[in-house]
Amino acid sequence: xxxxxxxxxxxxxxxxxxxxxxxxxxxxxxxxxxxxxxxxxxxxxxxxxxxxxxxxxxxxxxxxxxxxxxxxxxxxxxxxxxxxxxxxxxxxxxxxxxxxxxxxxxxxxxxxxxxxxxxxxxxxxxxxxxxxxxxxxxxxxxxxxxxxxxxxxxxxxxxxxxxxxxxxxxxxxxxxxxxxxxxxxxxxxxxxxxxxxxxxxxxxxxxxxxxxxxxxxxxxxxxxxxxxxxxxxxxxxxxxxxxxxxxxxxxxxxxxxxxxxxxxxxxxxxxxxxxxxxxxxxxxxxxxxxxxxxxxxxxxxxxxxxxxxxxxxxxxxxxxxxxxxxxxxxxxxxxxxxxxx
Length: 341
Hints:
Spore Coat Polysaccharide Biosynthesis Protein SpsA, Chain A, 6-stranded mixed sheet, 35% helix
């Protein structure tokens, strides 16, 4: 390549022969000129290498890196190191993007030097295969548009669809690239960028089409399990919202609260109480700590100099109800309390 591209598309590929041509076709139709595609063949055993070779002859902007199968984090880091652009667009080998996607996201970052990562709204496809949970997740993350929105709900779930993101390479390099901790590598990256003070944004338009299928990695690999998401949250809550806190109160003595509190206590978080609305739980103990009603929260709150509350109820609509209750008590989201479910 005899020029320096401003933007590199980073696309790991593993046994992606069925969908890869469609993904590459959508990149070939981009209105942006002069970008490169860095495709990392992570030891595929199907026709992925042949498809990449064929497309490489058609697209001079495509470069292929081949390696033994090492997993998603290592494939991403290998590709990231090879990317020549200072802006990196993620793309998966089973997705499609709008022809204006790269142009609009690159233009946004160039016009907003304070932003480290910009996503876009995402649509699931094929529409008749989009499950209810996936649809609800897309609705939630599509509504998080500003840096304030994204940071406020950073510990609820991954607030940006990884293949929809374009980021500044220098920011990701500064926080150590992709890392392997046994949980979702993309959520891990967003959490480390969050702690480092990076600013996020999301374009208010659908520019990525995210394929829903049973074999999708987020459905089949244990790194994306609920338990591992809770491990990740606990790991980064400690140096983040819980840093310097004298007391942690968890709202929710159900499944999410129980499992999250286990990981928090293992890491030394100063849990002092649980809040719950279920009469059968109130007055009992969980992990040796009292379960109190919402009416008793402020009495407990005033016992400590710098307490924090984590809302850990996974039922649909629960976070909005808890938000209203805490607001009426004068507690500020993102300062006094965080949603974690």
